[in-house]
Amino acid sequence: MQLKTQIVVVGGGAGGLELVRKLSARYGRARHDMILLEPNRTHIWKPLLHEVAAGSLDANLDEVGYRSHGHRWGYRFFMGRLESIDRDARQAIVAPLLDEDGAEIVGRQRIRYDYLVLALGGVTNSYATPGADRHCIFLDDRQQADRFRLKLLNQCLRVSRQTSAEPGSGARVRIAIVGAGATGVELAAELYNAAAGLRHYGLEVFDESRLDITLIEAGPRILPALPERLSDAARDELEALGVRVLTGARVAEVTDTAVVLATGERVQADLRVWAAGVKGPDFLQGLGGLESDRDNRLLVRSTLQTTRDDRIFAIGDCCACPQSGSDRPVRPVRRPRTRWRTPPSPTCAVCRKASRLLILFTAISARWCR
Ligand SMILES: Cc1cc2nc3c(=O)[nH]c(=O)nc-3n(C[C@H](O)[C@H](O)[C@H](O)COP(=O)(O)OP(=O)(O)OC[C@H]3O[C@@H](n4cnc5c(N)ncnc54)[C@H](O)[C@@H]3O)c2cc1C
């Protein structure tokens, strides 16, 4: 019996989910078998994570279940985390699946592939800054965004109670955000939006005036990918909201109470968010003997095939495509939210965001897509 051509896509994020849907729609099931391997049950569009973190978006309303999406589009969903690759046998090795208590649900498995597409995404790069991994929250996935939101709510509750007990106490929620790219800037603005709504949810004496947000950027200006005129306008908007914007400020250390700058200044903060820099996950270094760069990204050719294996492709944030005559990889095409549909269905949150960010991301896109 002739086996079907099996295409395994690893990672159901922005790139992987759209790819597996399109492949399934195009090739069907007669002679092909499409498989999506992903450790989570549901997908949430990553550019919405800062809204989840701020509490202005309920992630449950915007997530997509992989099983039903697979049923709808004709691919098989395997819940699990890629652990390694056996390139000789052409098999992806999936780590044992554990439940919340650490008990094994399914043991280690092997999935045969004819073609393997790695779409594992990226993680925030703290550039080995002392204390950053321990004392900062990153916004790489839903769990981290949820964790930030809970900490934020607890802190708002604390300040609200303290203000009720002692109205003149001047208690405030202090937040430091490291990195003034799109994520850091949007998070800062979104926190003011969210705080303004808290009084409707039982925190009567709390509002945005109780927030102390400091946005810390090492470069000379915020939103460095945008033209200077737009980045200046965004800075003015943030400062009008009440955000303290520090540029040319390099972070030397993060502690459990403060972000310490190279100048020695301590920015006291109850919550510290690191939103600067992206790299590939550490486990990509040496995965299956594939070639990666110093930021753990898999090196690919212009066909997106990895440099050492024609049957393995890498797409999205986990890959780097070197260009001749430069030591930098091809720049990623930053997609404006206006054009970026969530694979299964555009949602109201996406539409809301699209209209708010129309101008900002059209500008990024015009610049990056050149
Ligand atoms: C707050 C925020 C705002 C952003 N805004 C924008 C924007 O406006 N425009 C824009 O273009 N980009 C934006 N980005 C960047 C954009 O989200 C990423 O570039 C994009 O998600 C990358 O897609 P990807 O498929 O490579 O990875 P991801 O979308 O990160 O997906 C990776 C998937 O791989 C899975 N995975 C990880 N490890 C394994 C494993 N071992 N085995 C199996 N599966 C695994 C993960 O669970 C995840 O589902 C933003 C990012 C953030 C965090």
Structure description:
This protein has 370 residues and is α/β, with parallel strands linked by helices. It has two domains: 5-123 and 279-320, FAD/NAD(P)-binding domain (3-Layer(bba) Sandwich), CATH 3.50.50.60; 132-276 and 335-368, FAD/NAD(P)-binding domain, CATH 3.50.50.100. Helix content is 30%, strand content 24%. It contains nine helices and 24 strands. The chain has a six-stranded mixed sheet with strand order 5-2-1-11-23-22. The protein has a four-stranded parallel sheet with strand order 15-14-13-19. A three-stranded antiparallel sheet has the order 6-7-10, with no helix packed on it. The longest helix is centred in the middle third of the chain and has 24 residues, at 142-165. The termini are far apart. Residues 338-370 have low confidence and may be disordered. Flavin-adenine dinucleotide (FAD) binds at residues 10-16, 37-40, 46-47, 49-50, 81-82, 119-121, 139, 182-183, 281, 316-318, 334-335, 337, 361.
